[in-house]
Amino acid sequence: MPNRHFRALPGFATIVAMTESRASSSRSRDGTDIAFSQIGDGPPLVLIDSALCHRGVGPNRKLPDCLRDDFTVVTYDRRGRGESGDTTPYAVEREVEDIAGLIAAVGGSASLYGISSGGALALEAARLLPDLVERVAVYEIPFVVDASRPAAAPDLVDRLEQLVAAGRRGEAVKLFMREAVSLPSFLVRAMPFFPGWSANKALAHTLAYDVSIMGDGQQGRPLTGDRWSSLTVPVLVANGARSPDWVRAAAVQLAQVLPTASRRSLPGQRHYVKPDAIAPVLTEFFSSTTNSTEHNHNEVTR
Amino acid sequence: MNPNQITSKDGTTIEVECSGTGDPVVIIGGIVGDRSQQAPVAELLAPQFTVYNYDRRGHGSSGLTPPYSTDGEVEDVAAVIDLAGGSACVFATSGCSVIALQAAATGVPITKLALWEPPFIVDDTRPPVPSDYRQQLEALLAEDRRGDMVALFLTAAAGIPAPFVDQLRQSPFWAPQEAFAPTLINDATMMGDYSVPTSTVSVDVPTLVLDGGTTPWLTTAADTVASVLPDAQRRTLAGQQHNVEPEAIAPALAAHFGG
């Protein structure tokens, strides 16, 4: 069964022992309670989920168990999901503050691993919190850097917000899947047949958050390094070797434009990366003390 | 107090959300999900009825007392109806029809019943569910392979083509349903061999059997259940998919329960 996570009383960062995983909550700067869990021993490592995922749900689900021997692994429900609160108006900076709050709660500095749009959030946190973030690994941030898939329209956030405000959550999910994910239209039409449809609709209000995090990065233009020029922490850019061309092209380009990045392509993997494939890569990267600035390399060319 | 926490016969805690005013209607829902699935229907019925929407055992905020049995689910419905004042109309969606039919057949005080697309497999237009479906789910859960459990459910039980499932699995659409993977095992027990329960013939309450006319095997199932029930009405909400739109089904339920 899914963990029942403890929700702390407002104002208290209470630690409660629950089997081996410790669940608690951290109050973010704007007053939003962010529920998190931690497990394992070692330097803190915060896992950042992608769209529609939260603790216990998504590709990061089994990662804490894979990483707990080497790290204090922190997982949390991003605002608007699971056991965490939500406060309007939304801004990406609020999510960065949520991460700052978590880092403060677990020791004052941490490394970050983010998957998909969670990877973009991890980079944004590293940019805005240079004193708190040690190292960053990202997996397949869905930047659209060329014309190999349709770009997302610049007004996507607005349209998602309008649909959710009008109570048309299903339409919002379809719009997101069509334009942000570029899911084929026959699959978008099939989604309401799936049992997961209602669970998706329940999280529809958070889709605009993930699109906001991607900023103008899905509009088919090459990435420039300007946004991250101040980054000094080592960054690992990972992708699956079996992922679509546009995803791999984005990873290659991101690793090139970041000042301090290396890249790994994981054989056999696609977007929903398997924990036993990514965990050893993360362990190696986050355990390393070398600064990869000195060898910006693409180990695999695919 | 809302939501209400009640105790079922075997001690299991069941969480029930009440809303609205009027004659009581109990909703049995939550397939790969909790009571939030049917919350929009509850909201649309609330102006006319007092709606009791609850988390099935093992789902959401309700408890689970092993070993699972459909009898326990029937006792849960009885407990909810008790909370509702001793008798109620019941709406069951999809596989939850099994619970409603068994409850009505065994004398749980149900005044009227409505079923949405009970997924019984009674024709050859789709492959049968493998006889070891439940065992396959258990083996996958033992290895904590929740994604594979959902994929097995979608292909083997729900009859969705594997290429669709494979593509959706790489998309953000996938994750939210994985949370409910463990509930698939109890649902497999509840569905048995996916045939129409024999108790259906002794359900003597007025029953509305609904389908959307978009999935042939589900239409055949609805026809069959209606023909077996002693007091059935049959209605098609044309164009509706298995995840029926709340705005489409609520008026049909209101007409049946209020009529």
| Number of contiguous helices of chain B | 10
Q: Stretches of chain B where pLDDT falls below 50 for ≥5 residues?
A: none
Strand arrangement, largest sheet of chain A? 1-2-3-5-4-6-7-8-9
Largest sheet of chain A: 9 strands, mixed
Computed over alpha carbons, the radius of gyration of chain A is 18 Å
Oligomer: heterodimer
Which regions of chain A are unreliable across 5 or more consecutive residues at pLDDT < 50?
1-19, 292-302
Shape of chain A: globular
Largest interface, chains and sizes: A-B, 36 and 34 residues
Order of helices and strands of chain A: EEEEHEHEHEHHHHHEHEH
What fraction of the residues of chain B are assigned to beta strands by DSSP? 15-25%
Chain-averaged pLDDT of chain B: 95
Output the radius of gyration of chain B: 17 Å
**What portion of residues of chain A belong to β-strands?**
15-25%
Write structural notes for this entry.
The complex is a heterodimer of chains A (302) and B (259). Chain A has 302 residues and is α/β, with parallel strands linked by helices. Chain A is built from ten helices and nine strands. Chain B is an alpha/beta fold and 259 residues long. Helices cover 38% and strands 18% of the residues of chain B. Chain B has an eight-stranded mixed β-sheet, sandwiched between helices. The relative contact order of chain B is 0.15.
